[in-house]
Write a structure and sequence with these properties.
The complex is a heterodimer. Chain A is of the alpha/beta class. Chain A is built from 16 helices and ten strands. Chains A and B meet through α3, α4 and α16 of A and α6, α7, α11 and α19 of B.
């Protein structure tokens, strides 16, 4: 019996040997939950279908990615290949030399056209080529160029390329959700971010992130500071105090969160009546769990989420990593991810391809932070300013919180 | 025949007489030496047996702690990457001239040249940004600007960013030019240095760590007292009931002890939150108005309740094992001699249970001042501990130097308390069973 087992093990070893030599493990680190699921469906599964030799290993450690990457770097043993991080974290990793600098034109696929060849044909046939002025001709040509996909990746990603290390995937926003069944509000619903600070009209507990980022900006906006002046005001100590003074008005009514799942949970429990979190989480509460919750898009704060490649991944793996990234960030794949989660694709060329939710058939475009109806007032996180001032402002904010 | 025997014995006795000089073993070597040799062998064997554990402890415990202590003072990144600047600034002080010499400007440009090549400049900028906001973006910007500087370094640098024309920039650079710095420890106790080098308290709205250390100690003390008050009667019950009943009760103590910490903490959230079970019951009973539901979680109360529950077994178990050894007839004897129930307990039973109280109290207190996950989840803002800030600096801000300084202080605090306890109560009086 034992002999048989040993023979079996040896045989298995023999069979695993050549197989192991052929397959490459690709360790992809992400956030877990619905987000990882959307990546699995949109990127990993189709990629694995095309590349049998690559075995994708999912790791759900993105929330500790910065610290772990530094520890790996110091130990000289990088076990991750591709890591999903938020924009500000990518800045830190890039500055610390923990993320690789990327040549975008080399790594990323150029945009593929929104319209198909038939759309192009329709356009051409509708044009009266003989009567065109030179300017109109140039205009039409550039339109056609955009349609046939001759747009460089860098131009397609545009503002989303926030630093040299970051390969953007999605645009997400931090915004507010509120309960629609609060009796004390007398039928009114919040329409402006400043309603969060209005305890007289909208009484009840709030849920805010336990950190200065975004909260200080919202507080100043509602204290009468113009959007354009926000970071100038925040750069002065008085500005930070002014923002904290505004937050003081709702501090007794505020519960602070550290994980994105806390606000949705508290909204569903009725523990808070209004709270900030990531828009995808609110989508899940509203559309998937059918809770009496609605979105307040006013002054949503835009952020990017995307890939970084750790410095020091084995050179031998680089072709596979590069191939995966090129595949996972092309126009169609980014649009596909939006079928599973309500985050907007970071490529301009992906936006027209966003369709309906893969399982629920909900039209996804209207749930995207980038949808024109939702982006009346927006804020974009000033990553550079925060990289400089985070440490100091954080200390002030935590001291304020602790008292 | 008898005579010869007697003779032989006498001879033997005579030869057994201690000879002059040192005692000798059978082989003639001095006894002392031979004994030491034999013992050395024994000691070596003992050491060899302990060696694997010793090595393990040294590698996995002492070395990392040593490295952590070292991080809290280490500052080599600046002199390693900017050696020319450090040398050029050696003689400069802000009193002699507001800005350093041309040589220092040239040194900065030269050092940047090498740092940019090694792609280290942003890293150094991050390090300095912990001390003065703005260095992060200044160094990042220099990464783009330095290669364009041709000609006069002074003019070029100041044109690239006006920060190079400000004394504060250079003061910060000079202050952090050494291999070691006390800055992390200063920050960890809310101190800072002014431009002229004096050590002062930070502005009031930035002081946080001393306050958090004090709060951590205070809440931990309250938790220790609460576990003692709740745990003592239970341990007494367990120790005095017949074995069959006490075993069942023991399982009730151990069951939560074996349950995941996260599950227990989340269960408290469900129970204590405003729309939670306890508040619902109170409202239903009419004891609390619906609009005035009690806030029992996401504050100090939440931390205290959840942690008291979680740490209770650490109090009950040592108490129980000590009480188990107290013979019941002492109390009976006291009563038969006329003591009241209370006197018998207080004068006879309680003093014998104090070693268990000591052990339980130390265990609970030391565990709770290092507690992290429960305060994080239920502490809100008023119930978080110093360990939550340490975790923040490890995982978010990447300021490992400050995290190390805070952790070192926490370690020192625990050791001082342990020493105090030893002085006041005596560590020999602690019994785990």
């Amino acid at each position: 019996m034992l002999k048989k087992m040993m023979a079996g093990a040896a045989l298995a070893g023999l069979m695993a040997g050549p197989l192991a030599a052929q397959t490459t493990d690709l360790t992809i680190v992400s956030w877990g939950g619905a987000y990882s699921n959307s990546q699995n469906k949109a990127y990993h599964e189709p990629y694995a279908a095309q590349n049998a030799a690559v075995k994708i290993i999912n790791d759900e450690s993105s929330s500790q990615a910065v610290a772990k990457l530094r520890a790996m770097n110091e130990a000289g043993n990088i076990t991750w290949d591709v890591v999903d991080v938020e924009g500000p974290d990518s800045q830190r990793l890039c500055d610390e030399g923990l993320a690789m600098r990327i040549d975008f034109d080399d790594w990323l696929a150029p945009a593929t056209s929104a319209g198909s060849a038939s759309a192009l044909a329709t356009m051409v046939s509708s044009m009266n080529l003989e009567g065109l002025s030179p300017e109109a001709m140039m205009d039409a040509l550039s339109q056609m160029q955009a349609m046939t996909g001759d747009v460089s990746a860098a131009a397609d990603f545009g503002e989303a390329l926030i630093n040299e290390c970051f390969i953007p995937q999605i645009v997400f926003s931090t915004t507010f959700g509120y309960r629609t069944d609060v009796a004390a509000w007398g039928g009114k619903t919040p329409t402006s971010v400043c309603d969060v600070f209005d305890l007289a009209t909208f009484p009840g507990k709030r849920s805010l992130e336990r950190g200065p980022k975004k909260n200080l900006e919202w507080a100043l906006l509602c204290d009468g500071v113009a959007k354009a002046d926000l970071y100038d005001v925040l750069s002065t100590p008085e500005g930070v105090q002014r923002a904290l003074a505004k937050l003081d008005t709702i501090k007794p009514e505020t519960i602070w969160w550290t994980a994105g799942a806390e606000t949705p949970q508290r909204l569903a429990d009725g523990e808070v009546v209004i709270g900030s979190t990531y828009n995808g989480r609110l989508f899940a509460v509203i559309e998937e769990q059918k809770q009496p919750v609605a979105m307040l898009w006013d002054y949503q704060v835009f952020d990017f989420d995307g890939w970084i490649i750790p410095t020091g991944v084995p050179e031998a793996k680089m072709p596979v990593i590069k191939d995966y990234i090129r595949f996972a960030t092309d126009t169609q794949r980014l649009a596909d991810q939006a079928k599973y989660i309500s985050y907007g694709p970071a490529r301009a060329s992906s936006a027209p391809r966003v369709s309906t939710h893969a399982e629920r058939g909900i039209e996804m475009a209207q749930h995207m932070p980038t949808d024109p109806a939702n982006r009346g007032n927006i804020l974009v996180n000033n990553i550079e300013w925060w990289a400089d001032n985070q440490d100091e402002v954080e200390a002030v904010f935590q001291a304020w919180l602790a008292r | 025949m008898a005579e010869t025997t007697a003779q032989a014995i006498t001879t033997q006795a005579i030869t057994a007489q201690p000879p002059a000089g040192p005692l000798r073993a059978a082989d003639g070597a001095p006894l002392k030496l031979s004994l030491a040799r034999a013992q050395r062998r024994g000691k070596l064997r003992a050491f060899a047996l302990v060696a694997p554990l010793l090595l393990f402890v040294a590698l996995t415990f002492i070395a990392p702690i040593g490295e952590m202590l070292f991080r809290s003072v280490e500052n080599q990144i600046v002199p390693d990457n900017m050696p020319r600047t450090v040398a050029a600034l050696a003689d400069w002080t802000s009193e002699t001239a507001p800005l350093p010499s041309d040589a220092a400007f040239a040194a900065v440009v030269a050092d940047f040249g090498e740092m940019i090549e090694a792609r280290n400049h942003t890293r150094v900028g991050q390090r300095l940004n912990y001390e003065a906001s703005g260095f992060s973006s200044l160094f990042r910007k220099m990464g783009r600007e330095i290669p364009r500087i041709a000609g006069d370094p002074r003019a070029g640098l100041i044109e690239a960013d006006k920060a190079w024309g400000q004394t504060d920039t250079w003061v910060t650079l000079k202050r952090f030019s050494g291999n070691y710095t006390p800055a992390y420890f200063l920050s960890a106790v809310d101190l800072t240095r002014t431009a002229d080098g004096a050590i002062v308290q930070k502005p009031e709205n930035e002081r946080i760590y001393v306050y958090l250390f004090a709060r951590t100690m205070w809440i931990s003390l309250l938790i220790t007292v609460a576990t003692l008050l709740l745990g003592y009667p239970i341990a007494y019950l367990l120790a005095t009931l017949p074995l069959r009943t006490s075993n069942v009760l023991m399982i009730l103590v151990l069951l939560p002890f074996w349950t995941s910490l996260l599950v227990r903490t989340s269960a408290w959230i469900v129970l204590l939150q405003q729309q939670g079970v306890i508040n619902d019951v109170l409202v239903w009973l009419g004891l609390v108005a619906n609009e005035a539901r009690l806030q029992m979680i996401f504050n100090q109360t939440g931390t205290m309740i959840a942690m008291t529950h979680i740490l209770l077994p650490f109090m009950i178990l040592p108490l129980y094992s000590v009480m188990k050894t107290i013979p019941p007839y002492y109390v009976r004897a006291a009563k038969s001699l006329g003591a009241t129930n209370w006197t018998a307990f207080w004068r006879v039973y309680f003093p014998q249970s104090t070693p268990g109280i000591g052990a339980g109290a130390i265990l609970v207190f030391i565990l709770s001042i290092g507690y992290y996950i429960t305060p994080e989840l239920v502490g809100g803002t008023s119930g978080v501990f110093i360990s939550n800030r340490i975790a923040f600096h490890i995982t978010n801000s990447l300021n490992w130097g400050l995290a190390a300084a805070l952790a070192t202080l926490l370690l020192a605090l625990v050791m001082i308390l342990y020493w105090l306890y030893d002085r006041l109560v005596g560590i020999d009086n602690v019994k785990l069973g």
